[in-house]
Amino acid sequence: MPRPFPRRRLRSTAAVFTIMSALAATSLVGAPSVAEPFSTAPCALERTDAHHSEGVDTWNAAYPQPTRRLDAVMVFLSFPDSHPLTTPAELTADHFPATSRFFRRASYGRFTLHPHPLRHWTPMPRPSTAYSIQRDWSAAHRALYLRDALAAADAQVDFSRYDVVYFVADPDAPGVDSDATKVVNLEAPLRADGTDLRRIVTVFEKHPPDRLVLAHETGHVFDLPDLYHRPVDGKGDWDTYVGDWDLMGSQFGLAPDLFGWHKWKLGWLESRQVACVGGTGRTRLTLEPLGAGPGVPVTGAAGAPAFGLGRGTKLAVVRTGPDSALAFEARGPLGNDAGVCRTGVLVYRVRSGAESGGGPIEVIDAHPDTEACWEDSVYPPLADAPVALGESFTVPGEGTRVEVEDRTASGAWTVKITPG
């Protein structure tokens, strides 16, 4: 979860994280990898043992798949060393309906996240300072916090009824650090109400919180990786991999809708909406804007027409290796991307063997010599990455070429792709 400097231009360089990468990101240990058949498309990368692998041939059944209504309980935790200055209702409003709205639009109405917030504070047995809550939280203190929180809430909550658990701490307690917000994966699940709890979202956000932070964390609950780059020394840009282009890179992004690849992985795109491009000849196809579809307003922020869109091709893929591919999708001012900086066909590289936080997806800049939207973008060098109407672009090192030829009357993009 990157966080900004006060100066807007430098917000990406100030980023810190909620969930780093791999096991450190989710705290203890990831759940067992259980495969369920998903896609047999020739361009579907195989899921690997990498944490939050971008493989889409199988679904990891250790995670709930967001293709139906999922219920989430929100438990609000207070501490004996602080009197809450906010109410559970105010903290609920910090995150909902914004989080549910994001997923409804991203999934084209195929997924609903339904929150069940408690209406009162649940007292913790120890002062907030007893848990040493911080960004790089020790396993011992984290485990103590989770055990105490579960014991405190168990008499009030039937955990067997819920798919997602949010433990929300009093943001004004002296020992609460907003940088510690993260998803905790448990090697040995906690047991409550006959249910194994393998992952819990621990929320320590200030009031009001960072934009879309809970949507980012909930993405990890659905096996999505972190797409930002964490500098070794903690300095420098965190958004060099994907910039503004996916919530899992930055919740501050101008175009935070999930990549088409992620929508494929989560089950929101049908097989017929993914075009596998192979061979050596040119393939002409029509790409619908990623943000257009059922559950999304039919008109973009700039008045761009989107009527009749939603069921056509959303993603084109060129397989480049056993665990790598190039992806092509059209991005414009629709749905979650209402604030997009530049429109066009976005190109990115996917690696199913890369760990969360290790660059499993990298946006390829079609305009490497220019930048855009300095005042608002989390990473201006990638803000103008898409291939615009009338342009052509050859992917460096791959030889694959994309030409953006035209727009249809409904707003779709006509493109030609020639594999390298």
Summarize the topology.
Layout: H1 22-25, E1 35-37, E2 58-60, E3 69-78, H2 88-95, H3 98-106, E4 112-123, H4 139-153, E5 164-169, E6 182-192, E7 195-203, H5 213-221, H6 260-266, E8 274-276, E9 283-287, E10 315-321, E11 324-331, E12 344-351, E13 361-364, H7 380-383, E14 392-394, E15 401-407, E16 413-418
Explain how this protein is built.
- The chain has helices spanning 22-25, 88-95, 98-106, 139-153, 213-221, 260-266, 380-383; strands at residues 35-37, 58-60, 69-78, 112-123, 164-169, 182-192, 195-203, 274-276, 283-287, 315-321, 324-331, 344-351, 361-364, 392-394, 401-407, 413-418.
- Strand 6 (182-192) and strand 7 form a beta hairpin.
- The two termini are 36 Å apart.
- The protein has 420 residues and is an alpha/beta fold.
- The radius of gyration is 21 Å and the shape is elongated.
- It has a five-stranded mixed sheet. The chain has a five-stranded mixed sheet with strand order 8-10-11-12-13, with helices on one face. The protein has a four-stranded antiparallel sheet with strand order 9-16-15-14, with no helix packed on it.
- The protein is 13% helix and 25% strand.
- It has seven helices and 16 strands.
